[in-house]
Write a structure and sequence with these properties.
By secondary structure, the chain is α+β, with helices and mostly antiparallel strands. It has six helices and eight strands. Strands 2-1-6 form a three-stranded mixed beta sheet, with no helix packed on it. The longest helix has 20 residues. The protein is globular and about 50 Å long. The chain starts with a strand and ends with a strand. The model has no long low-confidence stretch (mean pLDDT about 90).
């Protein structure tokens, strides 16, 4: 058990060719959801899963309230939270709209130190699949799971999020997939 990673070639600007660089990217081994975390916490304490869930829910509420009131939040063991803003110029270019775009998170030194001794496992990048091969794998996945996300597609085919986004956009345009949801909650299904 450890952190899996793949090594990718770093894209170089076409007008500035140079020596090839590479970088490592962590490969997700799944996502730990609230229920799983509650069970983990309960296994090492005397409180119930429902109590842990209630505390975590209140914790998220308190952080949201602090961020909405203009405060940043620092949790010594975990990290530092602050709002992320985005600006958009108006159509006439004279005014701009400012909106909350998300939350910035900078992890604490203690959390970083806790990860420094994690086992690392290099996952070899497999041969690149053709679009038809990626499509076949996706359709097989959809027969078993009924829906797929961009991240699922990328992991399934061993490709980047950018490649996955481009492929899925093409599949939607061709009527192979239908898009459901919106924003960060978009999923793709086979059309009825």
């Amino acid at each position: 058990m450890g952190i899996k990673f793949k090594v990718h070639e770093t894209p170089q600007p076409k007008n500035r060719p140079g020596k090839k660089l590479s970088h490592a990217r962590a490969v997700s081994d799944g996502t730990a959801k609230m229920d799983y975390l509650c069970k983990m916490i309960c296994s090492r304490s005397t409180i119930s899963s429902a109590d842990v869930k209630a505390v975590l829910d209140s914790f998220a509420w308190a952080i949201t309230l602090c961020l909405k009131s203009g405060q940043h939040v620092e949790l010594e063991e975990l990290g530092y939270f602050s709002p992320s803003l985005r600006t958009q110029p108006s159509a006439d270019g004279k005014k701009m709209t400012v909106m909350v775009d998300g939350v910035n998170f900078r992890c604490s030194e203690k959390l970083k130190e806790g990860l420094r001794d994690a086992e690392l496992e290099h996952v070899k990048t497999s041969a690149k699949l053709t679009l038809d091969e990626r499509k076949k794998k996706m359709l097989d996945f959809l027969q078993r799971n009924k829906r797929i996300s961009t991240l699922d597609y990328a992991e399934l085919n061993g490709c980047s999020r950018y490649r996955a986004t481009a492929d899925i956009k093409l599949f939607v345009e061709k009527g192979v997939l239908s898009k459901i949801g919106g924003g960060t909650h978009v999923m793709y299904v086979l059309p009825n």
